Amino acid sequence: MMALRNFITIMLASAIFLLTISIAHASDPSPLQDICVAINGANETVFVNGKICKNPVDVVAEDFLFQGLNVPGNTSNQLGSAVTAVNVNNLPGLNTLGTSFARLDFAPNGINPPHTHPRATEVFSLLEGTLYVGFVLSNPPPGMQNRLITRTLVAGDVFVFPQGLIHFQFNIGNTSALAFAGFSSQNPGVITIANTVFGSNPPINPNVLARAFHLSGNLVRNLQSQFWVNNNS
């Protein structure tokens, strides 16, 4: 009986250890080769580290090159902002390397609305302008509130948005703002909260959203009828 109990204890401890290791390494997988240039094809069905690899013999310098990030994004939209993403989808050489990049342009009063990157931490560097930025911590223990971490950034400041947390950037200056951001994933993903909740296809049942957000059904239906802007390109 004692031997069986010890065996169960060891197996349970081993399972917990393996689970801990798995969680600790929950990020883009490490590459097992020098390069793995992605092949972007609609008919590809085999995926390696996110995308199938091009034969290294066929790799060229252009596979590692993205041009045009010096061109300002178009901020003439309802948000007054534009995100020009450089990830594995338009820079195939990033495949398996666990990083990506973006340019962010803001018109005066422009906003990059609350959103999350489910697969990456974001390192945000402001080059021009003044931005009010922040992120919200995840659900706290009972009796505590979700804590908001905010800061006003000026040119030269760097701010970090932790992986998966809801965050935003808002231009509070009188001039345009320019920022660049690095991500700890070749394809960080983006979930814009309002677009996802009120602009899903098909729509979420209004009764669900009314109950969840303490809103009237009519207000929910009005929000669902709006055009929700996607400022990512």
UniProtKB/TrEMBL annotation:
<feature type="binding site">
    <location>
        <position position="122"/>
    </location>
    <ligand>
        <name>Mn(2+)</name>
    </ligand>
</feature>
<dbReference type="InterPro" id="IPR011051">
    <property type="entry name" value="RmlC_Cupin_sf"/>
</dbReference>
<protein>
    <recommendedName>
        <fullName>Germin-like protein</fullName>
    </recommendedName>
</protein>
<feature type="binding site">
    <location>
        <position position="117"/>
    </location>
    <ligand>
        <name>Mn(2+)</name>
    </ligand>
</feature>
<feature type="disulfide bond">
    <location>
        <begin position="36"/>
        <end position="53"/>
    </location>
</feature>
<keyword id="KW-0464">Manganese</keyword>
<dbReference type="InterPro" id="IPR019780">
    <property type="entry name" value="Germin_Mn-BS"/>
</dbReference>
<feature type="binding site">
    <location>
        <position position="115"/>
    </location>
    <ligand>
        <name>Mn(2+)</name>
    </ligand>
</feature>
<comment type="similarity">
    <text>Belongs to the germin family.</text>
</comment>
<feature type="domain" description="Cupin type-1">
    <location>
        <begin position="67"/>
        <end position="221"/>
    </location>
</feature>
<feature type="binding site">
    <location>
        <position position="167"/>
    </location>
    <ligand>
        <name>Mn(2+)</name>
    </ligand>
</feature>
<dbReference type="InterPro" id="IPR014710">
    <property type="entry name" value="RmlC-like_jellyroll"/>
</dbReference>
<feature type="binding site">
    <location>
        <position position="122"/>
    </location>
    <ligand>
        <name>oxalate</name>
    </ligand>
</feature>
<dbReference type="GO" id="GO:0030145">
    <property type="term" value="F:manganese ion binding"/>
</dbReference>
<dbReference type="InterPro" id="IPR001929">
    <property type="entry name" value="Germin"/>
</dbReference>
<keyword id="KW-0964">Secreted</keyword>
<dbReference type="InterPro" id="IPR006045">
    <property type="entry name" value="Cupin_1"/>
</dbReference>
<dbReference type="Pfam" id="PF00190">
    <property type="entry name" value="Cupin_1"/>
</dbReference>
<feature type="binding site">
    <location>
        <position position="112"/>
    </location>
    <ligand>
        <name>oxalate</name>
    </ligand>
</feature>
<keyword id="KW-0732">Signal</keyword>
<dbReference type="GO" id="GO:0048046">
    <property type="term" value="C:apoplast"/>
</dbReference>
<keyword id="KW-0479">Metal-binding</keyword>
<keyword id="KW-1015">Disulfide bond</keyword>
<keyword id="KW-0052">Apoplast</keyword>
<feature type="signal peptide">
    <location>
        <begin position="1"/>
        <end position="26"/>
    </location>
</feature>
<feature type="binding site">
    <location>
        <position position="117"/>
    </location>
    <ligand>
        <name>oxalate</name>
    </ligand>
</feature>
